[in-house]
Specification:
Elements (H helix, E strand, L loop, with lengths): L3 E6 L6 E6 L5 E4 L10 H9 L7 H5 L5 E5 L12 H7 L8 E5 L9 H8 L1 H6 L1 E4 L7 E6 L5 E5 H5 L2 E7 L2 E2 L3 E2 L13 H9 L18 H12 L3 E7 L5 E7 L3 H13 L1 E2 L8 E5 L15 H4 L5 E5 L10 H4 L3 H10 L16 E4 L5 H7 L3 E4 L2 H9 L7 E5 L6 E2 L2
Parallel strand pairs: 3-19, 4-5, 4-9, 5-6, 9-12, 14-20, 15-16, 15-19, 16-17, 17-18
Antiparallel strand pairs: 1-2, 7-8, 10-11, 12-13
């Protein structure tokens, strides 16, 4: 009878294996996504040699004088550093000093030099100019508007480039179904007005839906319409396994390649939940456990079981809860205001019952946690949490562990 579960944790900050040990007599089951092997270098190259719906990138680059490569930030687990060398090899026709890398973080905070090294690779960060998109900057290009009225403002570096490429990941997402494709354009490198209209006047596609669910244009439709106006040439999208290793590479047209990758993701991220309600359910937020704002994407398993005790594991290594669009504030002013506010002390954590969401997190800001989780209890260490929990559960407690809850998809 198994009484341990080994999971991974701390994306971008060690990607460590963590073994949770429970009392003897407890029944511990892990409900993970499909086990998928890491792709080989040869398989990555094959994806670049055989793009989906477009000529290969090297053909698209011919006759072009400049290129912009857009990557996601550390709120997403995409190992872009493993992919960019393949992209750069395709861009031999373009002068090196005319290739720019833009971190398309939407309205997230800018990432610092150390984080840029992690995302794109230290050698590439030294050899190429890498900039953070600033959605509140005036350094944008106006490209008109969609028929719906959405105004199009795009990062100047991207808009002015002759060749435009996105390197990102395909992960379940409530607004656009799955990430990848045109999402690194909107909201990735869009201005405030574009983002505000995008988030306000379009319907959600729904979590892990590949195609539109209704008759009205939704968030993905809007992002793809803007990408067409901009002239996005191609994408490099990936899926990941339990250890944040690349399992699939989808290169090509920003619609066709993204849809192909999303179908693969829907299959490999699918998870069969336990039929019998456990006594304890654990949702591990890895691999989206760097940015605290992303925690909500991993909490769906906790909502499946009304009577189970519920625990989320999220180191929230970043420790900064900033989302400029919703906070309605730029990052510099956000930091100034935070520095002027007294740091809230962690209230004494106390487990009362299954209605609470319990979170073990070393870095999640106290005030932000309780603002987002009215029935939550924040713990800084596992022992304190578990010592309170063990007295609430039976000697033969059943435990269900979801090791990659942020990207797992419940089977319907």
């Amino acid at each position: 009878m198994n009484n341990t579960a080994t999971i991974h944790t701390r994306a971008w900050a060690g990607d460590e294996a963590l073994t949770l040990t429970f009392p003897k007599g407890w029944i511990v089951e892990t409900f993970g996504p499909q086990e998928c092997p890491q792709v080989t270098a040869e398989q990555i190259q094959t994806a670049f040699d055989n793009p989906i719906g477009t000529p290969r990138i090297s053909e698209l680059a011919k006759g072009k004088n400049s290129a912009a490569i857009i990557v996601d930030d550390l709120s997403r687990p995409t190992p872009a550093a493993e992919l960019i060398p393949y992209v750069l090899k395709e861009l031999d026709a373009i002068p090196k000093n005319q290739i720019r890398i833009v971190v398309g973080g939407g309205s997230h905070r800018p990432i610092d030099a150390e984080e840029i090294d992690k995302k794109v690779g230290a050698n590439i960060a030294r050899a190429y100019q890498v900039t953070n998109h600033n959605f509140m900057s005036g350094d944008l290009r106006a490209l008109g508007s969609l028929d719906s009225g959405l105004p199009i403002y795009i990062d100047r570096v991207v808009a002015d480039a002759d060749l435009k490429l996105c390197v990102g990941g395909i992960y379940p997402h409530g607004n656009v179904g799955f990430g990848g494709g045109a999402k690194l354009i909107v909201p990735g490198v869009s201005g405030f007005a574009t983002m505000f209209y995008f988030h306000t006047f379009y319907a959600n596609r729904g979590h892990a839906n590949i195609e539109r669910q209704g008759d009205e244009p939704d968030h993905r439709d809007a992002a793809e319409a803007v990408a067409k106006v901009l002239g996005l040439d191609a994408v490099v999208n990936v899926t990941l396994n339990r250890k944040r290793r690349i399992t699939g590479v989808f290169v090509g047209d920003f619609i066709q390649a993204q849809r192909t990758g999303a179908r693969f993701a829907r299959k490999t991220y699918a998870t069969q939940a336990p039929e019998t309600e456990p006594d304890l359910v654990i949702a591990n937020c890895y691999p989206l456990d760097y940015d605290p704002v992303q925690a909500g994407k991993a909490l769906w398993p906790l909502r499946l079981f009304k009577n189970a005790y519920k625990v989320a594991i999220n180191p929230a290594t970043d420790g900064i809860c900033h989302h400029g669009l919703y906070d309605e504030i730029d990052y510099a002013r956000f930091c100034k205001l935070k520095s002027e506010q007294p740091q809230q002390e962690l209230p004494e954590p106390k487990i009362e019952g299954p209605h609470q969401t319990l979170m073990w997190s070393e870095n999640f800001p106290v005030d932000e946690f309780y603002k987002r989780n009215s029935d939550g209890v924040l713990f800084r260490d596992w022992d304190t949490l578990f010592n309170q929990l063990i007295v609430k559960l039976p000697d033969n407690a059943r435990v269900a562990v979801f090791p990659n809850a942020a990207i797992q998809i419940p089977k319907k």
